[in-house]
Structures are given as structure tokens and as C-alpha cells.
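ok posting inputs for the cobalt (II) ion job
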Amino acid sequence: MKELKNLFDNNREWAESKLKDDPKFFSKITTHQNPKYLWIGCSDSRIPATEILKLEPGDLFVHRNIANLFHHTDFNSLSVLQYAIEYLNVEHVIVCGHYGCGGVAAAMGNEQFGLVDNWLRNIRDIYSREKKLLERIADEQERYKKLVELNVIYQVMNVCHTTIVQNAWARGNKLSVHGWVYDISNGKLKDLNCCISSIDQIEDTYCTLELH
Ligand code: CO
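and the output
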């Protein structure tokens, strides 16, 4: 018996239902993709990016990792960002975190989980930097939620600190980087209103445009 037969069965059913709704569904997206947005989200299985935005295949370019981090030395996320902006011409980059994020929780505790602790170190840096603000919040759940939000805001900044985004702005490209949080308890998105659309919104230390 074929392993994971249920998944192949599901897939066949899905492909057939897509064709039933639109006989040209696959032929329309076979030769190219034209997504309008880049999604940088958490790997968490409860957040299927395309589905929660009610979008279709071809609409959303996606990068996901544990705790939706954008490390400035991570060639994976940097390559996704560069390709999305320079070749797919996306105008919106969405960094989306989520309440109940295990990665953020792990970064708040003292337990070791292995290699992943190193990946999550950046969140500890954020906690340390924002310690005063965070520790004013007495309720632990609320503090956890705040760190989820702060993590998103810091990753939005990390995206904007790349030469990739700054060069796009220098070329006059329309490009906005958004910070959102998804609530797994009700399926709703929250806009953190930290959208960055120009170099003027970036702290001088991180501006690289003078080099050009
Ligand atoms: Co998560």
C-alpha cells in the first residue's frame, strides 16, 4: 500500500474540485506566477497563509520559519525577499506573527530545546531590549502577546534594514512592509500599524542608500 495514500487521495480530490470550478485553473498559472504579496510567517501548522487570506495559488509568495524571524545573515529569507522584490515585483511584504507562538514562548523561558534555541536567540535580544516595557505588564499572557507583537515589529525593521528593500526604494519602487499578528483563537488578523514605506522611516544607522 502506498505510504500516505490519504494525502494523495486528498490531493487528487482537490485538483479535481479546482478544475470543476474553473477548467482553466491550472493552465492559467502553469507558465508564470504573479503574486502581489510576500508573506513572512511562522511555520506553525495552524496558519496556512494563502487560506486565511482567502487567496488562491499564484497570489502569495511565501516564506515561513519558526517564529517568523528575518535574520540579516539568513540567505534563505534574504533570497526570498530579493526574488520577490526584484523579479516578482511585489509591492507589499507582510511579516505576520501569531499569538500562542511556541517559538516566542520558548524564547521567554529557561528550557533548552536544542539547535532551535540559537534560531530563537533574536527574540531574547528583543526581550532584553524591551525589558522595561515588557515587565511593566503584570499579566504573563499579556506580556507574551506583547512580545509576539514586538517580535513582528523588529522583524519588519530587519526587512527594511536590508539593502534589498532600501535599493528598491532608491529605484522609486512602490514597496511597503507591514506588521500583522494572527489570532489562532478566532482566525482574525490584527494590523500592528507599523507599516514602513520609505527610507525616511528608517533610523539613520541602518540606512545604506548613501553608498549609491
Ligand atoms: Co509560531
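notes: The pocket of cobalt (II) ion is lined by residues 42, 44, 67, 98, 101-103 (CB under 6 Å). DSSP finds ten helices and five strands in the chain.
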